[in-house]
Design brief:
Blueprint (H helix, E strand, L loop, with lengths): L1 H12 L4 E2 L2 H8 L12 E3 L4 H14 L3 E4 L18 E4 L6 E5 L4 E5 L4 H9 L3 E2 L12 H7 L6 H4 L6 E7 L5 E4 L25 E8 L1 E2 L3 E9 L2 H15 L3 E8 H11 L10 E9 L4 H15 L4 E4 L3 H12 L1 H8 L2 E2 L2 E3 L5 H15 L4 E7 L4 E7 L6 H14 L15 H7 L2 H14 L14
Parallel strand pairs: 2-4, 3-4
Antiparallel strand pairs: 1-2, 5-6, 6-10, 7-11, 8-9, 8-10, 12-14, 12-15, 13-14, 13-18, 16-19, 17-19, 18-19
Helix pairs in contact: 1-3, 7-9, 8-11, 12-13
Length: about 450
């Protein structure tokens, strides 16, 4: 059967469209963080939506599961096959065309395999902005970003990936192509079915193309770095920034002093301010004038109230980039410090101080010797509550402790990275039973044979 299926897939995808050699398969069967290693029957590399449809149909007929994959930059193992060697990795990276850009309508139609940075650059060349921005944008693909509802640093202003999607083209588990590539901001004609495929990690259908809503390219940007005494002070600064800057506020990153100290220690970078318990990186952008004056008002107000103890405003793009580099290198510095357990969690913005105040002593008491590395997108409630492990740390118990505190504070155990296979059991444990049952019903309705990405998001 495997031989027959491989022959069928080669006939569908043409020369170079099916990989079977172990060395060729290796980049596709290991996740980006190296946490999950699988085996695959093959990697199929279609070039068109029709080929994707034919590949999925052939696999479904053979009873062989399909694992959709884009740039393979996910952080939860959602695009990694299992160890059986029976699954087909369906990689869409050869479907990388930007089909159209509508400047007046501020939309872009793009295929699933297009790298996010490529799409961003194409939009920028037309004085438009594709505001989804994340660390892996140089290799992450649009289809994967849609399928995982990726977040990033601009969510505060522009929303998650879901907020950018106007239309989708999707291949269902039986190979049916559903074409909904409509560039409409208003469309109440029945179910908004595209939402079934955004953030569901390829378990309900394979995204092959999307129409994305762009935004005007801002003419002015201000970036500030603030030292603060506490997370409570950060929330007060955020409130002041929202009042003064309104929708111009695009980034609000909270970082512990320990996180920045590790960046300075391991990577040789330097904060422009002396050591402090907490730091905030604030960014705003707009096309109208007066942005810098408004930002200066935020800083002055925060200093006067004692919410900020010191601050600096970038005087150039180079200085702004240096501030962002401090933030972006936290994960690398963490890796150089030691092995860690990562928690991509979210709580209501107002609950961030209470969550941190509860979690830090609880983790320290239960797991002596561990160190907390807390940072993240505080403007939208997303905290990367990472724990640098001590020898012998019970990681399963650590996960339970942190996730229980997250739920207690009204939060989610996955803010932006998705469940993949990494968080399936914890999601099952922490979500209401009715929510899980509803998800199972939808899965059975759209993929009754369990062809698409089994074991991801829901238990297999």
């Amino acid at each position: 059967m495997s031989s027959d299926l491989l022959s069928a897939l080669r006939a569908i995808t043409g020369d170079g469209g099916v990989l079977t050699e172990a060395a060729d398969l290796e980049p596709y069967v290991t996740d980006w963080r190296g946490m999950f290693h699988g085996r695959a029957l093959c990697v199929a590399l279609p070039r068109t939506t029709q080929e994707v449809s034919a590949v999925v149909r052939a696999c479904a007929a053979a009873g062989v599961p399909v694992v959709p994959q884009g740039g393979n930059t996910g952080l939860s193992g959602g695009a990694t096959p299992d160890a059986s060697g029976r699954q087909v990795v369906l990689c869409l990276k050869r479907m990388n065309a930007i089909r159209a850009i509508d400047v007046a309508g501020e939309t872009m139609e793009v295929e699933a395999g297009c790298v996010l940075q490529t799409a961003q650059q194409a939009a920028r060349a037309r004085a438009l902005l594709l505001p989804v921005s994340l660390a892996a944008e140089g290799s992450a693909c649009v289809g994967g970003i849609v399928a995982t509802n990726a977040g990033g640093t601009n969510v505060l202003r522009y929303g998650m990936a879901r907020a950018r999607v106007l239309g989708l083209e999707v291949v269902l588990a039986d190979g049916t192509v559903v074409e909904g590539l409509r560039a409409l901001r208003k469309d109440n004609a029945g179910y908004d079915w595209k939402q079934w495929f955004i953030g569901t990690e390829g378990t309900l259908g394979v995204v092959t193309a999307a129409i994305l809503q762009l935004a005007p390219l801002p003419r002015h940007t201000v970036t500030a770095w603030l030292a603060l005494p506490s997370p409570e002070a950060a929330i007060a600064v955020l409130r002041a920034a929202r009042q003064e800057l309104g929708d111009a506020l695009s980034g609000f990153e909270l970082m512990s002093g320990e996180a920045i100290a590790r960046v300075e220690q391991h990577l040789g970078l330097r904060s422009p301010l002396p050591a402090a318990p907490w730091f905030v990186l604030l960014e705003a952008s707009a096309s109208l004038g007066g942005l810098r004056e408004a930002a200066e008002a935020v800083l002055a107000r925060s200093l006067e109230a004692g919410d900020a103890t010191d601050c600096v405003l970038a005087e150039s793009g180079q200085q702004a980039a240096a501030l962002w580099k401090l933030r972006e290198c936290i994960t690398e510095a963490e890796a150089r410090t030691g092995k860690s357990m990562k928690h991509d969690v979210s709580v209501p913005v107002s609950a961030i101080p209470a969550f941190l105040a509860a979690a830090d002593p609880a983790v320290a008491a239960a797991f002596p010797g561990v160190r907390i590395n807390a940072f993240g997108h505080a403007g939208d409630g997303n905290i990367h509550y990472n724990v640098i492990l001590a020898p012998g740390t019970d990681t399963a118990a650590l996960n339970v402790l942190v996730h229980d505190l997250v739920v207690r504070h009204g939060g989610s155990i996955s803010a932006e990275h998705g469940l993949g296979q990494y968080r399936v059991d914890e999601a099952l444990r922490t979500r209401h039973a009715a929510e899980t049952d509803l998800a199972r019903r939808i899965k059975r309705a759209l993929d009754p044979g369990g062809v698409l990405n089994p074991g991801k998001v829901l238990p297999q």
